[in-house]
Write a structure and sequence with these properties.
Number of strands: 11
Mean pLDDT: 93
Strand content: 25-35%
Shape: globular
Number of helices: 5
Low-confidence stretches: none
Distance between the termini: 49 Å
Length: 202
């Protein structure tokens, strides 16, 4: 049996401390949509509580089918607001989000159809019936590695947006974050987060 760490073989899980342009391939993800402040909303907490058990259950199915294991991917988030002026304020109550975890190609539709409902029922996952597996196509984007607390991301995000503007493009799509560190264990000032922003021609 082999154990694969997809973060080490998929280039989209590495980033530099200075902004760069990348091309992100289409991948399948375990996803759940919601709204509200992620720091206080029960909806976000229930989403995360559902995503991880389902991700580990799919990992077990792949291991049973192939004999190979893989490291469950880090949590990711897409963030936006209907009125993007709300997205740039300290009030996060109007934020919309998609929480997601990447999956390997070995996860099949049959595994998804059998595993998600069964695990949701067995573990009584409040938000389990809202979780789906879908393809996510990001394409061209700019990204940067932020090191430090999530609350201190603003200057990093602003630098990324300025880089996109200087390069002659405009923001498009949803703000994307990939949480490489476990906030329950890491020093907040050592948290590593990839911040990614798709763009289009100006």
């Amino acid at each position: 049996m082999t154990t694969i760490d997809l973060r080490k073989v998929r280039s989209e899980y590495t980033a530099k401390k200075t902004p760069e342009i990348v091309e992100i391939p289409t991948r399948q993800f375990l996803m759940i949509d919601g709204a509200g402040d992620p720091n206080t909303a029960d909806e976000y907490r229930h989403a995360i509580e559902a995503l991880y058990p389902l991700a580990y259950a799919l990992r077990a199915e792949v291991k049973t089918a192939s004999g190979d294991a893989y490291v469950v991917m880090p949590l990711e988030g897409l963030w936006w607001a209907e009125d993007m002026r709300d997205f740039h304020t300290d009030d996060k109550s109007n934020w919309l989000w998609t929480a997601m975890i990447g999956l390997p190609d070995a996860v099949t539709s049959a595994m998804v159809q059998d595993t998600l409902p069964a695990v949701t029922k067995k573990k009584q996952l409040v938000a389990g019936d809202r979780v789906r597996v879908a393809q996510f196509a990001e394409g061209r984007a700019a990204q940067v590695l932020h090191i430090g607390p999530y609350a201190a991301e603003a200057p990093t995000i602003e630098a990324l947006h300025q880089f996109i503007a200087r390069t002659g493009y405009q923001l498009s799509g949803k703000h994307h974050e990939i949480y490489l560190s476990d906030p329950r264990r890491a020093d907040p000032w050592k948290l590593r987060t990839i911040i990614r922003q798709p763009f289009s021609d100006a």
